[in-house]
Amino acid sequence: SDTLIFIFLGVSTVAGPHEWNWTFVCCTLVFCLIARVLGVLGLTCIINKFRMVKLTPKDQFIIAYGGLRGAIAFSLGYLLNTDQFPKRNMFLTAIITVIFFTVFVQGMTIHPLVELLAVKKKQETKRSINEEIHTQFLDHLLTGIEDICGHYGHHHWKDKY
Questions:
Q1: What is the pLDDT of residues 128-143, one digit of tens each?
Q2: Which residues form the Cation/H+ exchanger transmembrane domain (predicted)?
Q3: I need a surface site. Which of 19, 43, 87, 124 has the fewest CB within 10 A?
């Protein structure tokens, strides 16, 4: 459903009526980013009391910087009735701007920022023998189910290979 919302967002961006107000759009963007940072800082302050491995300030910054895409906000804004909410188009324009800022600006800069701050990334671990046996067992089981059903999916071709 998230994909459908973003497709609808793209269509609405190109075809929809927009009401641009620089002050409202800029304030919305700034307040959304501030609220995101305060939310992350507050919640990590609480959760760090119960964690064995604490989230560092660098981790908290990356969490705050990497979030906030806005598909739900767009959906809710789109559902507003123009008769009861005459500034609906201005809200949608601000929401679309926040979404595009977070997707394009923050999305394109998150990887260099993670590298610059040297944030520790999850290490890929080698699977244990138990995990390997269970994975192979499930692959063969699904291949058998596909053979019984007469459906030849990727498990069938993987087993044949």
A1: 888 888 888 888 787 7
A2: 3-115
A3: 124
